Structures
1.
Amino acid sequence: MNFVFDFGRVLFRWRPETLLRQALPQRVTDEASARHWVGQVFQAYGGDWGDFDRGTVQPPELAQRIAARTGLTPDEVTAVIQAVPGELQPLPDSLALLQRLRAAGHRTFYLSNMPAPYADHLEATHDFVRGFEAGIFSARVGFNKPEPEIYALAQQRFGVPAESLLFFDDHAPNVQAARQAGWQALVFTDAAQAERDLRTAGCWPD
């Protein structure tokens, strides 16, 4: 079995509400305002932020676009953009799962919606990212999950049959799209649940 990992909320911490509380303390003062600004800034990772993931907009333009749309100042949006790398910290249990799969001889790959500046940061900062056999960051190929093109490109780059890939992603539409591409895929909640799911599927490397 060949395992494919998403990054945000799978291998790396991603708490947008917390990030915005820290980056925009004057705007985000409670749970309701946190939800509001998460929706406004990230747009469910479509819209402006989706273009950032796709690699078609860079941080200065992104800040201007979000500011014009939301009423935040460009400096406020820039503060959010710059805060993201600090939020993306490895999840210890997920990293342990990855290492156990590698130690058992399984090949590991990644497929992540990730803007180019953050992809560069993660590669430069975390050795385990460079330990994957291959991977795709959305901004480097011009497609985002759950678009079918990114799964086809990933399978081609990984060089293995679709049915031999097992994909972990926290977002159900991305999992469904992977299944439609012929992959096996599981919705990732946490490493313990992933292990239980793998055991149930008979894929755990005992």
2.
Amino acid sequence: MTAAPLASDAAGGPGPTLLGQLLRFGVVGLFSAAVDLTVYTLALHLGAWTPAARTLSFVCGTSTAYVLNRRWAFRVEGSRRRALGFVVLYGTTFFVILGVNAAALALLPDGSWRVTLAWALSQGFGTVVNFVLLRTVVFRA
């Protein structure tokens, strides 16, 4: 089941171009990352266990990313198959990101920036993988 794109780029093609998708994905990513980091920091500040805080922040950031990427970055209609593909991709990525975050926390020296840097490293790693798989598998028109 393939859905038609919701809109096209200024070039007038049938869907967003690679550059258009990449730029929109970047904007969505920055916004979703801000949601993620805010929830993570707040949860830690409130005394949450680090893996629980990272889990909660990931779910909030990922939910934001799904909605905005589907509607704006990749401009495709929603479907159960796409939603399931997104859940499987991000569910797998979550465990990788959680591992990268834990490894970074274990390896980085103590400092006030340590938690934020560990989060950023895990987020950056997941972002690259997710763009490629979202574009080629989940949101391909």
